[in-house]
């Protein structure tokens, strides 16, 4: 009997005896086997993308949830029954608007008097849909910077397909036309800002050595009207290891500052004040930020404690000093506001003579208005509900009046005008309810992380919820870059999830900014696992409360939140039955070599450092996959036009999971950039796919 016959006989005997043969495990391919998927527009990689998309569509567009979800989404996104948020420049309020007839949007304006009516009359300034048709380009509007104080000349940023790279064109408001022979730049990750009508700061791809390793401008020049860009005067050249350099002007009513900003890392910088031909280095900690300029005083937000002249300023506080004293290196800083264990500073805005400081106190919003009285800055809290999120809008150098927007999970956005003299609120706009929230309630809970830290989260659920562990539950997370997640109203979430009985959870894990710099820094680099442990603690707390169970628990996150998703399901696949992983980082060995990835080494650490990689590889999702683990069927989404987080992160993860025998869904939109979608139809489709998947997995 030969060898083959012996083997066949042994297999047959085992089968007859009720035994099974040993399963042959798929071989884990070398990382380099997937490098071809890093070719964004490669013929083979795009063919692979198309195949993956079609497979996902065949499943997710052919169940009972997709069509209903798409119709709900497009109706909500195209609805004109929403607040048109506007910013005042001079005598007009400007707004960018999209709807069914304007998929790419229109930039328009109205007067303050008109804006305060129920149906303002808007004047269209620039139609992006018409421009895209004329140019034969898939333009996505990325902003317009207009020149103080007349605001008639603007620098329009247009992105092809939604990428971070933008084309810049000078535009004249009065004639509603682009300026012939005006300031223009081809598509790149440009930095451009007005100095005066005939001069701009500009940073772009000037050729070899002009861009940082992260893909942003390293060289900043002063460019004068009517001269070729090649003759612009170089003001600053950052090293390639910096994230980016830029130049800009800060103004209060009577003074202006020309500033050169060199982001030496994501959380550190060198800042220079230009005085004629001199560059004066701003003598503050490298991790501090300029937050405002008013009353000829400069306001600095501290990310770490600062010991100076025998005094210690606390981490998270805002300090200030007269700019003239700062320039002469004799500043005696004072504290405007200090952080606490529960309170953190979110943002600072200025009006004609007041400072508006937005803070979070146990993740609840407050706005403090500071006015200068008797030589001191004194504060008073704006009287508004603090159970939701409060945002400052439309601050203006010509008045102390301003707008406040209030929203919560269950209350649609409401816009108020605040009188700068007496603080009185006047209702301006109120969005109608977009879904039925009568039987819904919001609660804040606290979970205990592995190291004993208390971590808050919000839960939105039915008032009469049965704590039987059977409720479909969606847990959302981010946990990075000092980004705070706050309550907000979403018609998409409401119609697709909450109205149908789903529970929504918003996590406030470490790595975010909910409790200021300390909360963020607690999960940096070799403490990254703290964010993941916090997320797992919240998932376990939901299970312990019997709100849900692993069978009915889904999770969602994008970008850094996509990395969180990858770490979550590879660390604890037993906790979840659905994972929506969007525009994610996943290959943490090569992330610094892909697009803007080098800029995030201050957050995650440098994987080229052997000791750092020894830590990073413990959670890098791409490197923690194996064939024998039972993972949930993950849904990955990304965009071919994402030039911030490379689509290869998601592509390679999916390819490796499939090679290891795991089923996944994958959707790559050909447009959309890091946002994932370029217009309302694409957004409606993406959301419909997501909720079709979630209900399929969790109900």
Query: In terms of per-residue confidence, which ranges show pLDDT below 50 for 5 or more consecutive residues?
Result: 1-22
Q: How does the helix and strand content classify structurally?
A: alpha+beta
Largest sheet: 8 strands, mixed
Query: Strands across the major sheet, in which order?
Result: 32-33-35-34-36-37-38-39
Q: Would you identify the CATH H-level superfamily of the domain at 31-74 and 434-693?
A: Alpha/Beta hydrolase fold, catalytic domain
Overall pLDDT metric: 94
How many β-strand runs?
Answer: 39
CATH topology of the domain at 31-74 and 434-693: Rossmann fold
Distance separating the two termini? 56 Å
Tally of helical runs: 14
Overall description:
- With 699 residues, this protein is an alpha+beta fold.
- It has a domain at 31-74 and 434-693: Alpha/Beta hydrolase fold, catalytic domain (Rossmann fold, 3-Layer(aba) Sandwich).
- 21% of the residues lie in helices and 33% in strands.
- It has 14 helices and 39 strands.
- Strands 32-33-35-34-36-37-38-39 form an eight-stranded mixed β-sheet, with helices on both faces. Strands 5, 6, 7, 8 and 9 form a five-stranded antiparallel β-sheet that branches. It has a four-stranded antiparallel β-sheet with strand order 1-2-3-4.
- Helix 3 (66-78) runs antiparallel to helix 7.
- The relative contact order is 0.10.
Summary, kept brief:
With 699 residues, the protein is an alpha+beta fold. The protein contains 14 helices and 39 strands. The strands form 9 sheets. An 8-stranded mixed β-sheet has the order 32-33-35-34-36-37-38-39, sandwiched between helices. Strands 5, 6, 7, 8 and 9 form a 5-stranded antiparallel β-sheet that branches. Strands 1-2-3-4 form a 4-stranded antiparallel β-sheet.
């Amino acid at each position: 009997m030969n060898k083959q016959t012996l083997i066949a006989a042994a297999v047959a005997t085992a089968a007859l005896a009720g035994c099974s043969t040993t399963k042959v495990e798929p071989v884990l391919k070398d990382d380099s086997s997937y490098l071809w998927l890093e070719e964004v527009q490669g013929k083979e990689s795009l063919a692979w993308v198309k195949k993956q998309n079609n497979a996902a569509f065949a499943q997710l567009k052919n169940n009972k949830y997709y069509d209903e979800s798409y119709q709900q989404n497009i109706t909500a996104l195209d609805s004109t029954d929403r607040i048109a948020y506007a910013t005042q420049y001079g005598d007009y309020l400007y707004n960018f608007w999209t709807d069914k007839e304007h998929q790419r949007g229109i930039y328009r304006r109205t007067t303050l008097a008109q804006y305060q009516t129920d149906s303002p009359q808007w004047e269209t300034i620039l139609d992006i849909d018409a421009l895209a048709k004329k140019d034969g380009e898939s333009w996505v509007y990325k902003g317009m910077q207009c020149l103080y104080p007349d605001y008639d000349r603007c620098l329009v940023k247009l992105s092809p397909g939604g990428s971070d790279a933008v084309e810049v064109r000078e535009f004249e408001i009065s004639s509603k036309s682009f300026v012939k022979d005006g300031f223009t730049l081809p598509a790149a990750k440009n930095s451009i800002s007005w100095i005066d009508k005939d001069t701009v700061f500009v940073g772009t791809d000037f050729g070899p050595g002009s861009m940082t390793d992260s893909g942003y401008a390293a060289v900043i020049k002063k460019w004068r009207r009517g001269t070729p860009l090649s003759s612009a005067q170089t003001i600053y050249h950052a090293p390639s290891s910096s994230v980016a350099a830029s130049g800009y002007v800060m103004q209060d009513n009577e003074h202006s500052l020309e500033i050169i900003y060199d982001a030496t890392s994501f959380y550190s910088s060198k800042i220079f004040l230009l005085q004629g031909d001199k560059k004066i280095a701003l003598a503050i900690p490298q991790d501090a930020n300029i937050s405002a300029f008013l009353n000829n005083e400069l306001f600095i937000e501290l990310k770490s404690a600062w010991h100076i002249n025998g005094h210690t300023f606390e981490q998270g506080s805002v300090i200030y000093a007269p700019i003239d004293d700062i320039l002469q290196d004799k500043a005696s800083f004072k504290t405007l506001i200090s952080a606490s264990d529960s309170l953190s500073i979110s943002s600072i805005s200025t009006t004609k003579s007041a400072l508006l400081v937005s803070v979070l106190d146990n993740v609840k919003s407050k706005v403090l208005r500071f006015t200068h009285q008797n030589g001191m800055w004194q504060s008073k809290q704006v009287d508004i509900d603090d159970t939701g999120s409060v945002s400052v809008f439309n601050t203006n150098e010509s008045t102390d009046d301003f707008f406040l927007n209030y929203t919560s999970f269950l209350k649609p956005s409401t816009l108020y005008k605040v009188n700068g003299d007496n603080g009185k609120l006047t209702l301006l706009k109120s969005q109608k309810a977009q879904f039925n929230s009568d039987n819904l309630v919001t609660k804040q809970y606290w979970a205990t992380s592995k190291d004993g830290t208390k971590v808050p989260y919000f839960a939105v659920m039915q008032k009469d919820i049965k704590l039987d562990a059977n409720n479909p539950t969606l847990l959302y997370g981010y946990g990075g870059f000092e980004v705070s997640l706050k309550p907000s109203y979403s018609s998409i979430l409401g119609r697709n999830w909450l109205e149908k009985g789903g529970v929504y959870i918003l996590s406030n894990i470490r790595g975010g900014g909910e409790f200021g710099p300390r909360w963020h820094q607690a999960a940096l680099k070799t403490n990254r696992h703290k964010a993941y442990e916090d997320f797992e603690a919240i998932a376990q707390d939901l299970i312990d409360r019997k709100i849900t169970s692993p069978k009915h628990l889904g999770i969602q996150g994008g970008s850094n939140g996509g990395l969180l998703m990858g770490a979550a399901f590879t660390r604890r696949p037993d906790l979840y039955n659905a994972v929506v992983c969007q525009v994610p980082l996943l290959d943490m060995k090569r992330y610094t070599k892909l697009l803007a990835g080098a800029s995030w080494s201050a957050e995650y650490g440098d994987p080229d450092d052997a000791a750092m990689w020894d830590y990073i590889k413990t959670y890098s999702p791409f490197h923690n996959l194996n064939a024998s683990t039972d993972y949930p069927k993950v849904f990955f989404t990304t965009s071919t036009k994402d030039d911030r987080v490379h689509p290869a992160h998601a592509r390679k993860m999916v390819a490796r999971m499939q090679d290891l025998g795991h089923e996944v869904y994958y959707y790559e939109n050909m447009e959309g950039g890091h946002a994932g979608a370029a217009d309302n139809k694409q957004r409606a489709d993406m959301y419909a796919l997501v909720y079709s998947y979630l209900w399929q997995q969790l109900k």
